[in-house]
């Protein structure tokens, strides 16, 4: 078929790009979400190199494939944020299922990798669904290898065994962020995130500063402060479970769970998970989703063995190393 590739135009392309993203996203997104995300990102990139010659800073390239009627049938983005590991870029590539196997994905990918080489990237990260053999094959054909496996799990709340709420460890109270009367509560939550994130398998790069963390955590469109649950030891924040509420699907996503190292082994993570489920049940939520890295055995044990989350297709993190010219 005849198609052309051009740069993404904003805001005109938001709606059609959102439609494409919904082929791969677990929860539906919309043009407004893309516009909000763009409002948080500086329009001008600031790429540079560190003392080792590795790519730093932030920028992105967004392109679309359009048919003869200018309908968008493919989308690609190559991006890095200031906190992305030095040298690396992240890729997303989607083609409308009705138009696959016609060279559209390969053309989009060629332009993304060309840009990556031009700006001096050394490693490309690309996620593909673990149940899509054609996408896995496409990645391998373009020189990618599997680095990690991220499992997704779903819990149907109507059938959840509510007697498990009795297993909540009441030694440390768990409160919504809205009920914590401390003017520094967001800064304290940030410090908790920053410390506990370092122990997640596969985490790399520098952590967000407070301003960026707030934009991409508390200010997400699905985030509400009453759905941020904090475990406390006195006034000290020792654990957190953050839920995102997707109203259209009547679902919640357990975006993050973390417990400080010196408080582990006391069922605090399990208690946070149970409190999150209890909150979701009280709101009449139908199901909850979560993701776990394959190497995060303790959290997988809680989700799959204790709470009975059911496995659904997850994603492989595929990586490719570029030769520097």
From TrEMBL:
It holds the Pfam family Acetyltransf_1. It comes from Paenibacillus motobuensis. Keywords: Acyltransferase, Transferase. This is N-acetyltransferase domain-containing protein. SUPFAM superfamilies: Acyl-CoA N-acyltransferases (Nat). The keyword Membrane does not apply. PROSITE patterns: GNAT (PS51186). Signal peptide: none annotated. It comes from the Bacteria. Residues 3-169, 172-323 form the N-acetyltransferase domain.
């Amino acid at each position: 078929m005849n198609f052309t590739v051009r740069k993404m135009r904003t805001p005109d392309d938001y709606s059609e790009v959102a439609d494409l993203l919904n082929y791969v996203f677990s929860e539906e997104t919309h043009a407004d979400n893309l516009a909000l995300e763009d409002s948080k990102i500086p329009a001008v990139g600031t790429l540079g190199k560190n003392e080792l010659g590795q790519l730093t800073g932030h920028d992105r390239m967004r392109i679309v494939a359009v048919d003869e009627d200018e309908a968008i049938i493919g989308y690609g983005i190559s991006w890095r944020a200031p906190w992305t590991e030095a040298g690396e870029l992240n890729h997303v590539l989607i083609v409308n299922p009705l138009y696959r196997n016609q060279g559209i994905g390969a053309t989009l990918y060629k332009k993304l990798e060309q840009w990556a080489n031009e700006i001096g990237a050394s490693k490309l990260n690309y996620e593909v669904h673990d149940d899509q053999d054609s996408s896995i094959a496409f990645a391998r054909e373009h020189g990618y290898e599997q680095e990690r496996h991220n499992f997704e799990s779903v819990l149907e709340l109507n059938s959840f065994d509510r007697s498990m709420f009795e297993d909540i460890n009441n030694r440390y109270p768990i409160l919504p962020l809205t009920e914590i009367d401390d003017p520094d509560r967001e800064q304290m939550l940030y410090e908790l995130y920053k410390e506990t994130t370092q122990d997640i398998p596969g985490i790399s790069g520098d952590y967000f500063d407070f301003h960026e963390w707030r934009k991409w955590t508390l200010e997400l469109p699905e985030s509400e402060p009453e759905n941020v649950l904090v475990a406390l030891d006195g006034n000290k924040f020792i654990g957190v479970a953050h839920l995102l509420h997707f109203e259209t699907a009547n679902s919640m996503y357990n975006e993050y769970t973390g417990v400080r190292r010196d408080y582990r082994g006391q069922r605090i993570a399990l208690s946070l998970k149970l409190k999150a489920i209890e909150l979701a049940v009280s709101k009449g939520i139908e199901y909850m989703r979560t993701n776990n890295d394959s190497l995060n055995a303790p959290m997988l044990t809680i989700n799959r063995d204790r709470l009975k989350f059911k496995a659904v297709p997850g994603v492989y993190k595929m990586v490719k190393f570029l030769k520097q010219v």
